[in-house]
Specification:
globular, 4-stranded mixed beta sheet, about 190 residues, Glutaredoxin, about 15% strand, alpha+beta
């Protein structure tokens, strides 16, 4: 898979919204963006990243899950100088959509984490654990024996923490990579 080609065609956050979103879509994304926050410790963690990471997010401006997660990803990228985030439109990138199918479905958002030289490191999406916990609580009812706890009072903070954990996990993977340590002499 030529991840760099997909990444190069993808767009930065605002350009993605301008090209693919209607005014109503952009307003929905902006409303979440304004509410999405990173705690000072989270910001400090992101500023401390040492390895360049490219995040390629397959999304749709019309998608509710993308509306709630895309702005969070943008906040993460803004706080981390070593993260470059781009968005690809699900409906325009058929090959990418097919490559990133999850559970036999074309689910979004899905993020491909790429190293500085565009090697795939991880995929994450379509919903975070916090989202699935909330959905299970709402849809499965109290008699369901899943053991899943209901989400905390601040769902957006939980969702942000989920994304941050995955971003940090991939950063540590890159930081500890023997080949990248040889390249960077650390």
């Amino acid at each position: 898979m030529d991840w760099q080609a997909f990444y190069d065609r993808a767009l930065p956050y605002q350009d993605f919204l301008a090209r693919y979103g209607t005014d109503a879509h952009r307003q929905r994304w902006q409303a979440v963006y304004e509410r999405a926050r990173l705690e000072p410790a989270q910001q400090a963690l992101l500023r401390g990243f040492e390895r360049r990471m490219h995040l390629l997010c397959l999304a749709g401006t019309w998608c509710g899950d993308c509306v709630s997660q895309g702005p969070v990803l943008q906040r993460v990228a803004e706080a981390a100088p070593m993260i470059d985030l781009r968005f690809a439109d699900r409906d325009e990138e058929a090959a990418l959509q097919e490559a990133l199918a999850l559970n036999a479905g074309r689910r979004i958002p899905v993020v491909v984490f790429l190293s500085e030289d565009f090697h795939e490191c991880a995929r994450y999406g379509d919903r975070t654990l916090a989202v699935y916990r909330r959905m299970a609580h709402e849809r499965l009812g109290p008699a369901c024996p899943t053991g899943i706890l209901p989400p905390g009072p601040d769902h957006l903070a939980d969702l942000t923490a989920d994304w941050l954990r995955e971003v940090e996990r991939v950063q540590l993977m890159l930081r500890l990579s023997p080949s990248l340590r040889a390249v960077h002499g650390d």
